[in-house]
Amino acid sequence: MTTTGDELATAVTGPWWWARWRSALLDGGLAVVSAAECASEGVPFARDAGIPLSAGVLFGLLAGSVLLVRRKWPIAVVLVAIAITPAQMGFLMGIVGLYTLAAAELPRRIIVALAGMSFVGTMIVTFVRVRQDMARGELTLGDWFEPFASITTSLGLTAPPVLLGLYVGARRRLMESLRERADSLERELQLLAERAEERAEWARNEERTRIAREMHDVVAHRVSLMVVHAAALQAVARKDPEKAVKNAVLVGDMGRQALTELREMLGVLRSGEGAVRRAEPVPLAAVEVAAAAAASRAAAEEGAGDGPCLSELDELVGQSAAAGMVVRLSVEGEKRSYAREIEQTAFRVVQEALTNVHKHAAGAKTHVRLAHRGAEIAMQVENEPPPEPGSASAAQLPSGGNGLLGMRERVVALGGVFVSGPTDAGGFRVSAVIPAV
């Protein structure tokens, strides 16, 4: 499991400049060992320098304890180690200081300069010490041993800690960059999840709107005509039995048509629910819900393959005429077939407009116009004022106020234009133009 940048920021629990207590304990332990080393090396230094032993030991303790601040001031630690090199003390401090310096976030020129100073200082001190030993007869090797010993010793004390520090620093920077990239990816995933949830919510809203529009189109027109025929049936049942039978047959046919369309729609809803249930155990459920909604919509379109089309306009107008409406259909241009969505939308616009005439202007003369143009199809339903001003259907049909809104949504979804409103003569006009390409 990766540790994010925020988690690292909150993980700083150590004292002063240490990120963790274990880092403080490690540096404290190294400082104690370095101070002990320098104190022990201060005894021969005091003898050679002719100063009291206590002064040499105290100097060694103070110099070795500088290693405690190696993380805060690595340059100071290396400079102190270089400074006490002539006294032949602080070897541990020099090695640890060079490692810390190379691993720190410092310019390379500073690291190279201090490492070079430490190398030169160690080489000079080693060369002088080996020459003194050879002069006293403690070493009987040839003259070649002096430069060899000084170079190998200085390299051994300088190169390994510097190279190791450079490697650890580079690895640390790589891990930090990977951690930052993981943080960035995590934020992007959160944004994607939020957007997926928004898209899923939008898809659900769109699906609810589409279902409500379809239910309104199916129920409103069929049931409105059924109510009108039922009212007419009640009025002529005793006076004209034959006409009453015809009206009853029409009511039955319309009821069966409404039930058929409702069953198709409910079947689509059930298949959509199944898709959502199957998507529940899958990760990123929001995306799956959106996909389920899209699948439901596609299933709805497939289920509507045998739905209304422009060829059924004559039957639609005939049903309204049978309900007592004076309606006339006129078609302009050459008839041709369109995409399924275009024909269904055009049919639904005319259907809902006729339903509104039944509801709000019973008995009014109505003109239905359909125009086939080169790149578009236009339709218009206009009714004259009702015979009696302010009259409504005798059956007092309820209105939810969603018919015009549903028509506008259908037309605009296909890139068309929808206009509705009262006419100067006191009637009402519904017009729509839908692109046919």
- What is the approximate shape? rod-shaped
Query: Helix and strand succession?
Result: HHHHHHHHHHEHEEHEE
Let me know the number of strands.
5
Mean of all residue-level pLDDT scores: 80
Residue runs with pLDDT of under 50 for 5 or more positions: 1-10, 274-305
Count of spatially separate domains: 2
Helix-strand category: alpha+beta
Helical fraction equals 55-70%
Rg is 47 Å
The biggest sheet amounts to: 5 strands, mixed
Whole-Å distance between the termini?
Answer: 54 Å
User: Going across the major beta sheet, what is the strand order?
Assistant: 1-2-3-5-4
In terms of DSSP E residues, the strand content is 5-15%
Number of contiguous helices: 12
Task: Explain what this protein looks like in three dimensions.
It is a single chain. The chain is of the alpha+beta class. The chain has two domains: 5-189, no CATH class; 308-437, Heat Shock Protein 90 (2-Layer Sandwich). Helices cover 66% and strands 8% of the residues. It contains twelve helices and five strands. The protein has helices at residues 5-10, 21-49, 53-64, 74-83, 91-103, 108-135, 145-236, 241-279, 285-303, 313-322, 340-360, 403-413; strands spanning 327-332, 366-372, 376-383, 417-422, 428-435. Strands 1-2-3-5-4 form a five-stranded mixed beta sheet, with helices on one face. Helix 11 links the parallel strand 1 (327-332) and strand 2. Helix 4 (74-83) packs antiparallel against helix 5 and helix 7 packs parallel to helix 9 (285-303). The longest helix is centred in the middle third of the chain and has 92 residues, at 145-236. The protein is rod-shaped, with a radius of gyration of 47 Å.
